[in-house]
């Protein structure tokens, strides 16, 4: 298996984890400024990791 695909899968899993954590924080938030900051930070990082991982998996060609 290609090292780039493994790294892409790892980035994708980290992105999914960040997005799930953002969803959990948004459900449990009371609307404070710190909670909104955490939502934005974790949401953006999760989205960046997810998109980068998917893009890395899609653009890497299989070589046997």
State the main characteristics.
64 residues, mainly alpha, 2 helices, 81% helix, 0% strand, rod-shaped
Which helices and strands, and how do they pair?
Layout: H1 3-27, H2 33-59
Helix pairs in contact: 1-2
Structure, described:
This protein is mostly helical and 64 residues long. The protein has one domain (3-59). Helix content is 81%, strand content 0%. It is built from two helices and no strands. The protein is rod-shaped and about 50 Å long.
Q: Uncertain runs with pLDDT below 50, 5 residues or more?
A: none
**Helix-strand category:** mainly alpha
Percentage of residues in helical conformation: over 70%
Largest sheet, in brief, is:
none
Tell me the β content: under 5%
- Shape, principal axes of CA atoms: rod-shaped
Rg for CA atoms = 15 Å
- Number of strand segments: 0
What's the overall average pLDDT, rounded?
87
Number of helices: 2
- How many domains? The number is 1
From N to C, what is the helix and strand string? HH
**What is the distance, rounded to the nearest whole angstrom, between the alpha carbons of the first and last residues?**
9 Å
Give a quick precis of the structure.
The chain has helices at 3-27, 33-59. It is mainly α.
